[in-house]
Amino acid sequence: MASLAKKRALGTGEKPEEDHEESSDEGIEGVGDSGDDDSEDSDEEINEEITVDFEAHTISDSDSNGIKKLLKQLFLKANINLSQLTDLIIQQNHIGSVIRQADVPEDSDNDDDIDEVFGFISLLNLTERKGSECVEQIKELVLEHCEKCCPKNIAEQLDKILNDTTKPVGLLLSERFINVPPQIALPLHKQLQEEIAEAQRTNKPTGKCHFYIMISKTFKEAGKNNSTLTGGAPKKEKLMFTNAEEEFFHEHAVLKFNYSVQDESDSCLAGRWSFDDVPMKPFRTVMLIPAKSISPIMEKLREYLSI
């Protein structure tokens, strides 16, 4: 497949702002009467929304840095060889897509804008890639947190599933900038399922999986009093998904648990909360989804995300 053979419009969204450092002139009073006007103009620029169109492309070598950056926002400080993981995703480019801006302005002074990756989707067969350092590290990460968060029998069950070579497990990765709208997930997942079916038909790598495992970026409200007003049982904290559509996968998961990443420095790519926002505690939610559940999940995606 040619590197840009898969090119389809996905929709529109607000382009993410770059993470610039604060100016060294901050706190210095302006000279003359133009200071207040400049400040007002600056505020207007910060609040300006830029609408952009997105397209899906086949994953190629030029996407390496963008994919690795997005993987970093998912795994944070976890001991995962992200360079190797990125290489594996690129090597099997018969499965997966990257999101790029459809039309980069001609007056753009940044050559990186042309190939900037706003998101990607892929599936990595953990069973086929058994023995690869990054794959073993991902399995170790998941099992370690499962042992801490779940009863012993659940951890043993997950360990057995991850090491059962007769029922392959695929790691489903779907990462994007927070400003990219969730509607973009529908065509991406639809395309991915078509590619998986084609891989199965042609006996290509990654095609057949019995389970999918996902690690989602999630949040809960911080500092909230979870007790009822009458002093009864604590209320269950609501789990919120950074990628909203992943809640449908959560509903069909046969095994799921959360672990906190509060002590890890979360990237601005995963969302930066303003002072007016409710403080949030970041988590990662691990979900094991049977492959047979993908069909009803896709129906949910079509119902809620169709434009």
Protein described:
The protein is α+β, with helices and mostly antiparallel strands. It is built from nine helices and nine strands. Strands 1, 2, 3, 4, 5, 6, 7, 8 and 9 form a nine-stranded mixed β-sheet that branches. α2 crosses α3.
**Main β-sheet description:** 9 strands, mixed
Q: What is the radius of gyration?
A: 21 Å
How many individual helices? 9
Proportion of residues in helical segments: 25-40%
Shape: globular
| Mean pLDDT across every amino acid position | 81
Strand content: 15-25%
> Could you give the order of the helices and strands?
EHEHHEHEHHEHEEHEEH
Runs in which pLDDT lies below 50 for 5 or more consecutive residues are 1-5, 16-35, 225-230, 267-275
The computed structural class is alpha+beta
Ends distance = 28 Å
Number of strands: 9
How would you summarize this macromolecular structure in one to three sentences?
The protein contains nine helices and nine strands. By secondary structure, it is an alpha+beta fold.
